[in-house]
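Lecture notes, unit on protein representations.

Consider one protein chain, 262 amino acids long.
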Amino acid sequence: MIRALNTAATGMYAQQLFIDNIAHNLANVNTTGFKRVRMEFQDLIYQTLRSSGNTQELGQILPVELQVGHGVRPAASQKSFAQGNTNPTGNPLDLAIEGDGFFQVTHPDGTIKYTRDGSFKVSPDGALVNSEGYPMEPSITVPADATSITITRDGTVSVMLVGEVEPTTVGQLEMVRFVNPAGLLNEGQNLYAETASSGPPIVANPGDEGLGTLAQGYLENSNVQIVEEMVAMITAQRAYEVSSKAIKTADDMLGIANHLKR
């Protein structure tokens, strides 16, 4: 019965963490480029009370073993990089990635961060930056006298200058992909950081080396499915409730045993 108390407690903790993760997904349902996270769990170590294959006194061999598990533990938080729906914005500086890949931005500490959020702006000095002011990598500068900007599906950036009849190319946008994007580290602000698990970035132009292409004037929505999260929330709530009832039942049984009289 003591084992049941501890085992059920691990179940309650696991479902609490599951609900925390669901709440995080739902909170970011309107976050541009957000990728939902799925919790993964593993069963804990087992106590073997009787091993299979042992020979009994009369010569018979036990076909199965007798084991008791000790509950569950959180094992991983798996990011899903499934494509989110694209939403037209009409803003020429908004970019959606159709397929695999990440934009690169330079963090103030000098490191390169990665993002699916393509809502870029023009800084006072003409550089393309994200919402936090981090410049795009490689740096692309829009001339002050530019009247319009065009970004093709392969990342070529061109502008129309005052008095000109032909567009002028001002840069080439590059993207990266990873062998294991699920290994990237979430850093908040819609940014990811490279880790040993993700592998090094593979840099190329959009459309090359397995990278997706760009859609100007669009943004990628979150890939969170509200209905799926609501169903998962109900499941987690019921599992939490059942685990709490297991604790209550074990406590009642302990109470009965404590009050036994001859």
